[in-house]
């Protein structure tokens, strides 16, 4: 299912800033307009994906015509020259398959005795590694 939200693009000295007014001023940026558009899709997909995973109440998108970019520029204390509003669309389910849920095969080496012991206990190596990596990342 395609999701579409308006985004405000502001030309900056070194690229573009992108703000999603409907999504708590969710923001991203890019060095070029193409990169900013790409980052906007990624940012929107990530926000909606996590919101869906955590059963959060995600606000409905505003109509493009209802976005007051001058008000947002004033809030951000930024210049309106080169600014515009564009609708960003993404199929969150399809995007997640490629960017958020895709698994990567890793080769690792462990002692033979540890391998035997784990196999005897029917331990899922991938699950244990993922859990350990998540635990390590959260401590960092």
Query: In what order do the strands lie side by side in the largest sheet?
Result: 3-2-1-4
Number of helices: 5
Structural class: alpha+beta
Give a quick account of the main beta sheet: strands, pairing sense, barrel closure. Answer: 4 strands, antiparallel
Q: Percentage of helical residues?
A: 40-55%
Question: What is the CATH topology classification name of the largest domain?
Answer: Double Stranded RNA Binding Domain
- Give the C-alpha Rg: 21 Å
CATH architecture of the largest domain: 2-Layer Sandwich
Query: What is the name of the CATH class of the largest domain?
Result: Alpha Beta
Please mark out the parts with pLDDT under 50 across 5 or more consecutive residues, or reply none: none
Shape type: elongated
**Which sequence of SSEs, written as H and E, runs from N to C?**
EEEHHEHHH
The amount of beta strand, in percent, is 15-25%
Distance between the termini: 36 Å
């Amino acid at each position: 299912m395609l999701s579409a939200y308006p985004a405000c693009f502001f030309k900056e000295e070194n690229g573009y800033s992108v703000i999603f007014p409907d999504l708590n001023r969710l923001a991203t940026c890019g060095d070029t307009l193409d990169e900013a558009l790409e980052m906007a899709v990624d940012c929107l997909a990530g926000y909606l994906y996590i919101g869906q995973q955590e059963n959060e109440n995600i606000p409905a998108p505003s109509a493009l015509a209802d976005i007051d970019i001058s008000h947002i520029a004033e809030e951000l204390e930024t210049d309106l020259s080169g600014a515009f509003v564009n609708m960003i669309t993404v199929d969150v389910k399809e995007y997640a398959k490629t960017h958020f849920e895709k698994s990567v095969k890793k080769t690792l080496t462990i002692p033979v005795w540890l391998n035997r012991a784990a196999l005897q206990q029917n331990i899922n190596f991938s699950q244990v590694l993922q859990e350990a990596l998540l635990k390590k990342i959260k401590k960092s």
